[in-house]
Amino acid sequence: MKLDSKIPEGHISQKWTDYKDHLKLVAPNNRPKIDIIVVGTGLAGASAAASFGEMGYNVKAFCFQDSPRRAHSIAAQGGINAAKNYQNDGDSIFRLFYDTIKGGDYRAREANVHRLAEVSGNIIDQCVAQGVPFARDYGGLLDNRSFGGTQVQRTFYAAGQTGQQLLLGAYSALSRQIGLGRVKMYNRHEMLDLVKVDGKARGIIARNLITGELERHSAHAVIIASGGYGNVYFLSTNAMGSNVTAGWKVHKQGALFANPCFVQIHPTCIPVHGTNQAKLTLMSESLRNSGRIWVPKKKEDAEAIRAGKLKPTQLTEEDRDYFLERKYPAFGNLVPRDVASRAAKEVCDEGKGIEANDTNEGVYLDFSTEIQNKGKQAAYAQGNHNPTPEEITSLGKQWLKEKYGNLFTMYQKITDENPYETPMKIYPAVHYTMGGVWVDYNLQSTIPGCFVAGEANFSDHGANRLGASALMQGLADGYFVLPYTVSNYLADEIRTGKISTDTQEFVDAENRVKDSIDKFLNNKGSKSVDHFHKRLGLIMWNKVGMGRNEAGLKEAIAEISSLKEEFYKDVNVPGNADELNPQLEKALRVADFIDLGQLMAMDALQRNESCGGHFREEYQDSEGETLRDDENFSFVGAWEYKGDDITKEELHKEELKYEFIKIAARNYK
Q1: Residue 405 has pLDDT above 90, yes or no
Q2: How far apart are CA 349 and CA 367, in angstroms?
Q3: How far is CA 65 from CA 173, 190, 514, 592, in A?
């Protein structure tokens, strides 16, 4: 199979504009004759469904939650990037493009990333028009803050709930189309297979999660916008329902799965508390604007803190190691996520972790310096040029509360510690997945008519995603890319007519799903689904996590093979198929996670270099930084499904060509 990325010719600044100008169109009177399925209603799915409904297509939208408002996009806190240069600090479309390529350690497709930067400004305008309450400065203009991997302020935000506000904006647009009858919403439905007819994506098999009924749905095109696969690690910052099933089903039907080993570990997560924990909580990266990250310089101080004999506030400045500021003076606490995460792991491996958990892993995120600085500024602005220390502290805390209040409240509710008084405890955790279904420039997979958007595809982030770019990509795909590229594909479908769900292809797909469900319900094993999911997660975190090496990856591949065999022999799924059955839902999803986990280890094993979130311990420079091999590994690794034995999957390579950016070693020092 030869991969054709369909990147248009021309200068990068004109590629998308020129390409759009020559795409085929579907006339307004023909759009009601065409059906589109959208799987997932997060930012990418909701914006796509709303856009196609507005254009006049018939849209069916599916989500496994009880409402599109429950999509995991709602959990995003910190902000959304856009190259508006409102702060007049040197930002531009090219700068956002460059930062994204560099942040991804030169493993992203150049043309897609530039397009993302181009449309970023339009996203903000669109969302403001929808009523998204972005933060504003004193003069009423939209405010910006910094995020990791950049030296400009380009992140638009709505306190610490940006994802929620953006999703509500997209949901309002979607709801309007539902009300007009152009979008039919299927809540509590899960896609369990893709249906192909004559090689084209023509529909899905979905399970009604309330009644258990299997349903056939046909369409002229299918859009997968079902999010990422971070829950393969069991513990992650993802919603507990987030899964890979929709993406994995299209993979099994012939869509290639690209760069599965590229996983982002986020540096500012509340540390693991105990072995029975099922979910991790993220503290927004925006906090790195105001917080300073440190550990004790001496191991004995860290041990005393873990034992409860010493408080962090008792350590003097001289006894603290602000390790990011020390190692990366140019960017300090705002280095990219993969760099910050590895640095935190390094100091904890040295025995300086401060959390009294099973692994002693944790570092501090301290706001005391910001409280003092902002308190003095606030006092001065009020005309008080000689404030008392108490006044400074009070005003500084008030400033923090206005900027990050809901995040501080959330942290205190979870940990029962006051972050205004005591530094937050944080540690890296699995957050975002840069890999996903391979798509071309049109966001179309290797299956004609099957498009993939948002975190479910691989296309824009390379080996590491810059903070505040997930929301940007999801909305860019749904509002400003798919309406053009899917319409171009559908221009040849206006004479196709309604697609029947009574064909043999739909019957076969439904039978595949039935067989899979029956297999689990009739298994009568002795162990729960979570038992196997936790074991998979431990293998993945320990051997395909922040640090990877050849021996560990080979062990992971073998261990997952054994786990898969045991899973199918000994998993117990209670209940029936024709009812609400959360354990059955989990079993179907974990089966896909097991296969994916093995592929992730295989992908990490073949990539003999370190880049971004993929850190092979054998490939690091003298200072412990990533050591890329641009001569041999400047490619997208796209895997082709070859049957139930995942070790038989075939690797295809899309060469990455950089015409407009000079490849260099990443340097944040």
Answers
A1: no
A2: 24
A3: 18, 9, 22, 19
Give CA–CA dist 57/62, Å, rounded: 16
Catalytically active residues are 337
Provide DSSP, 490-525: HTT-TTT-PPPS-SHHHHHHHHHHHHHHHHHHTT--
d(CA 386, CA 389): 9
Residue 378, classed as helix, strand or coil, is helix
Asked whether the beta carbons of 280 and 272 are under 8 A apart, the reply is: yes
Q: Distance between CA atoms of 46 and 43, rounded to whole angstroms?
A: 5
pLDDT in tens, 25-82: 999 999 999 999 999 999 999 999 999 999 999 999 999 999 999 999 999 999 999 9
Residue 50 CA to chain centroid, in angstroms?
Answer: 21
For 362, which DSSP code?
Answer: -
d(CA 477, CA 485): 10
Q: Chain-centre distance of CA 547, in angstroms?
A: 20
Longest pairwise C-alpha distance within the chain: 82
Q: In what order do the strands lie in the sheet with 257-258?
A: 436-437, 257-258, 635-640, 650-655
Sheet holding 58-62, edge to edge: 183-186, 58-62, 35-39, 221-224, 450-452
Q: 624 Cβ partners below 8 Å, 6+ apart?
A: 342, 346
Looking at 382-481, list the stretches that DSSP marks H as alpha helix, in order from N- to C-terminal side: 389-415, 470-475
Strands 263-269 and 257-258: unpaired
Say how far apart CA 188 and CA 182 lie, in whole Å.
19
Tens digit of each residue's pLDDT (9 = 90 or more) over 347-380: 999 999 999 998 999 999 999 999 999 999 999 9
What is d(CA 609, CA 456) in angstroms, rounded to the nearest whole number?
A: 24
Q: Are strands 58-62 and 183-186 parallel, antiparallel or unpaired?
A: parallel
Residue 30: half-sphere exposure toward Cβ, Cα within 13 Å: 13
Distance, CA of 438 to chain centre: 15
Number of other residues whose CB lies within 10 A of the CB of residue 216: 19
Q: Measured on CA atoms in the order 632, 636, 640, 646, is the torsion positive or negative?
A: positive
Q: Residues 111-144: pLDDT tens digits? A: 999 999 999 999 999 999 999 999 999 889 999 9
Residues ≥6 apart with Cβ < 8 Å to 190 = 62, 64, 206, 207, 209, 245, 585
